[in-house]
Amino acid sequence: MASLLTQKPVVADISCIFFCLGLLLCLIRCSKAQTVPALYVFGDSLADVGNNNYLPLSIVKADFPYNGIDYPGKKITGRFSNGKNAADFIAEQLGIPSAPPYLSQPNNVFLKGVSFASGGAGIFNATEGGILEQVISLAKQVTHFSTVRGKLLQELGSIAAEEHLAKSLFPIIIGSNDILGHFKSASNKTSPQQYIALMLSTLQQIMKGLHGLGARKFLFIGLPPLGCAPKQRSLENNTDECNEQLNFWSNECNQGFKQMLQQLELELNNFHYSYFDTYTVFLNFLHNPTAYGLKEIKSACCGLGKLRAQIPCTPISQYCSNRSEYLFWDFYHPTEAAARSFVDIVFSGSGGHVSPITVQQLIVI
Length: 365
Known about the structure:
- There is one protein chain.
- The protein is α/β, with parallel strands linked by helices.
- The protein contains 11 helices and 10 strands.
- It has helices at 2-34, 86-94, 138-156, 158-167, 176-184, 192-212, 230-234, 244-267, 278-287, 336-348, 359-364, and strands at 39-43, 113-115, 169-173, 217-221, 272-276, 296-300, 302-303, 318-319, 326-328, 354-355.
- The strands form 3 sheets. The protein has a 6-stranded mixed beta sheet. The chain has a two-stranded parallel sheet with strand order 6-9. It has a two-stranded antiparallel ribbon with strand order 7-8.
- Helix 3 (138-156) packs across helix 4 (158-167) and helix 6 packs parallel to helix 8.
- The longest helix has 33 residues, at 2-34.
- The chain is globular, with a radius of gyration of 23 Å.
């Protein structure tokens, strides 16, 4: 009797072990099924990881101090940040390496992904500006992606390459420079409504081109309230308040982005997307900064002049020591801490800030 009693827990323990092992294997399989093989990033300075470093004529660069002061090894990478940026944190959330800048190794196959993003880039080619503002427009970024796709076809074969791209994630962070450029130009005769309509129609064709090259899963990042950037606040006489006109048109552009994405989903086979409402989340940061660990929401951390926003972050600038408490690193770009918080919200799946499906749902399609 005693021996039988002592054997029962052993049987129970063995059953429990097998159950736990089975559950663990299931979780591992599920986890692998939900990962993406690569990240192909398109956009502007919010996602640039160093492409502009390789543009010899461009002055739109961040390859000097104090940029990168909090990057591992205090490395100056060309990111418009004190450390990592949104593209880095998206990769981190997916458990894959940060996508390297395309121009650093343009002959690579980039099986793990690559970033085409360029500081100063816009939807319009004209957003590139003059010769000293040389950047890589969104259309040119897609041309570079077409080159990468060709190398993937050679390396993997057509079927495997198409499957690889279909499972990969394509973040798009674009449009800020177009809006800012329109309101900066005193000679612009196009109304904001006409300008945004042209922006959207141009972007729609570019997105169709990406889909035609094999992209299937898009993470589209909406515009923030651009009028609340330190640079714009510094122009508002002595009030330091947001430029509400710029905010209005930023939001109008976002509504157009959402309609455009809905239309593309109807028109194109296997077109899937998650849209991040950056505008609302940004306002939450402004209205309740302490909830996100922030204390300073108006002034830039690095720069000179009013709100440290009249002269950009350069080696002669002043910079703050409590960088994790600042929303802005320089006059337009978020700090590493703020970028991390934004991306955490993108992937949290809560709050209704990502639609029509969460990033997790997008990944497993």
